Structure formats: C-alpha cells, structure tokens
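Long-time lurker. I teach an intro course on protein structure, and each term I like to show students one example going from raw sequence to a predicted 3D structure in token notation. This year I'd like something fresh instead of my usual example. Would anyone be willing to generate the tokens for the chain below so I can use it in lecture? Attribution to the forum is fine with me.
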Amino acid sequence: MSVKDLKGTYVLDPTHTSLAFVARHAMVTKVRGQFGQFTGEATVDGANPAATSLKVVIDVASVSTGVADRDAHLTSPDFFDVATYPTMTFVGTGYEIVDDATVRVTGDLTIKDVTRSVTIPLEYTGEAKDPFGNTRVGFEGRTEVSRKDFGLTWNAVLETGGVLVSDKIVLEFDLSAIKQA
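-- Reply from a regular --
Happy to contribute to a lecture. Here you go:
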C-alpha cells in the first residue's frame, strides 16, 4: 500500500507515538525529550491531498527529559511558560505526496502564541491490523526549527564561548494512528 491509497480519519495512539525533540547542551552534547500527553487527528485522502486535514494539540506540561529539575525549568516562564501557554498546536495547511512512501506535511506550529510555518517530511512505514481489530498506519520523520522563532530565547553564555542551549531544535516523530470506523 502507498500513501496515495490512504483514505479515512485517523487518531494518534499516544501509547505508541513519540513526539520528541533534541537540543544541543553546552555545545558538546545532545539532550533529548518528549511530550507524553497529546491528541491528534487527521482526515486523509491520498488521492486528493488538498482534502486532507490534520491537527495535533500537545499538553506542554507533559514535557519529559528524564531530569525533573530540567523539566521544571522547561515548563517555567524561561521556556514554555505552561501557566500562560498550556498547549502547543500543529495544524496542517498543505500536503504534498512526494512518492509512494513519502508525504511532505506543512502546517502552522504555535508555541507561546507565536505561529510559524513548518514543513515535515514523513516516511510512511506501513499499515497493519492489530490483534484488537484496529487498522494502524505509521509514519516517521524529523525537521529542524529555531526555538528563538517561537520566543524561546532563554540562554546562558559559556565561559569558554558559545551558549548553554542551542537555538536549533530537531523535532522527531514516530507516529502510530488508528483508523476510525
């Protein structure tokens, strides 16, 4: 099956989906994190990509890097400011089928009331019927964004030069979605 053959409404399965990010720390190592609470729904028409729609809403307080102090800092006003901006959203605005296994999704990513257009190339990893009778589809992809473009500007200058947190953030997606009846 190809992405051109997909048709229907699909809902993200949060227990089998990863919405993750990677940032460079102190210019020498990578810090990884992900969001654990989110919803997402897409109405897909592979034969008519213009009829496709997508919306993902992420609970920003669900950020997890594996370090409680760092997670608390990320949810503070220095970064995401979850008390004021509890969610971030991605709303699809364009869908381009590149080939049988690749779709390029463009959408409006909103973080802290700042909206920027982001394009995400997604590789279709297949369709399967699970033991519970659900039809699942999978996609994976990654893209880069500038955190400063979204008002995430906190940083610290290092004594040796450079900064503590990179501006470039890699967003990584491993998506499992269940087709709705």
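Some talking points for your students: The radius of gyration is 17 Å. The chain has one domain: 3-179.
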